[in-house]
Automatic annotation (TrEMBL):
It comes from Marmoricola endophyticus. InterPro entries: 5peptide_repeat, Pentapeptide-BTB/POZ_domain. This is Pentapeptide repeat-containing protein. It comes from the Bacteria. Pfam families: Pentapeptide. Signal peptide: none annotated.
């Protein structure tokens, strides 16, 4: 029996959270966020019920970064699971929640990628490595104090690279890692199974592209035109990337992101 895709659990449930993403991160005024906000300070638009008071007009008010943000379900994991029943209003509790959120958010992002790898058909040894890493990240998530996230990120990055190479092997795919393709018309380019890890695709025209198992880890897809593109088999695609891109009903996404 196949197990349910673990990524289905990595979805934000803001009703079970306490607005952690509106308080913990630091922001500088930019195209994504209209104001400077120090870390661990509530956004001025955070309501008393932890809802966003300008949610319906975030882009118009200069906060498009909030629209595309994804916590991978780490907010409710901290508030409703790890601090179940704790008093959010207690400053000591809140500080401990913030500490946990800073770690769990990064671990849930890793879990998203590792779950993508674990859903692929891999040789036994590689599949076992992925399973071992998934167990380690989950255990770290459940006891986040003192976790060395940076070393887990490095281990995950190396293993994802191996999985990516396996998925794209023999397909003659192009290596466009970290390529600057911003604003380019890529409709006639063969990007099937391309290595696009870290590529800058801001505003690129990818209409109708068939990306196959292209590696999109960390690719910047802001305002990239994905109408008619097939991303159903892509590797390491996130909600954040999809929300930041231009899509419509003709964009074919992986099942978990539909
Ligand atoms: S941290 Fe996640 S669950 Fe909490 S309010 Fe932000 S998006 Fe919602």
């Amino acid at each position: 029996m196949t197990r349910p895709d673990p990524r289905l659990a990595l979805v934000a449930d803001c009703s079970s959270c306490a607005g952690l993403c509106c308080e913990v991160p630091q922001f500088q005024a930019s195209a994504d966020f209209a104001i400077d906000k120090p870390g661990r300070t509530p956004c001025p638009h955070l309501g008393a019920d932890f809802g966003c008071t300008i949610h319906a007009e975030l882009p118009q008010r200069g906060f498009p970064g909030c629209v595309v943000y994804d916590c991978f379900g780490s907010g409710q994991q901290v508030v409703a699971v790890q601090f179940a029943g704790a008093d959010h209003a207690d400053p000591g509790v809140r500080a401990a929640m913030f500490d946990a959120f800073e770690v769990v958010e990064r671990l849930h992002e890793l879990l998203w990628y590792v779950a993508d790898a674990s859903a692929r058909a891999l040789p036994r040894g590689l599949a076992d490595e992925v399973g071992g890493l998934e167990a380690t990240v989950l255990a770290s998530r459940d006891a986040p104090a003192g976790v060395e996230v940076t070393s887990l990120q490095a281990r995950t990055g190396a293993l994802l690279d191996e999985v990516s190479s396996h998925l794209r092997r023999g397909l003659g795919a192009r290596d466009l890692r970290d390529a600057d393709l911003a604003g380019r018309d890529l409709r006639e380019e063969d990007l099937y199974a391309a290595r696009l890890r870290g590529a800058v695709l801001i505003g690129a025209d990818l209409r109708g592209a068939d990306l196959g198992p292209a590696d999109l880890l960390g690719a910047d897809l802001r305002a990239a035109d994905l109408r008619g593109a097939d991303l159903s088999e892509t590797f390491c695609l996130t909600r954040f990337q999809v929300r930041a891109a231009r899509t419509d009903a003709t964009t074919v996404l992986p099942d978990v992101l539909r």
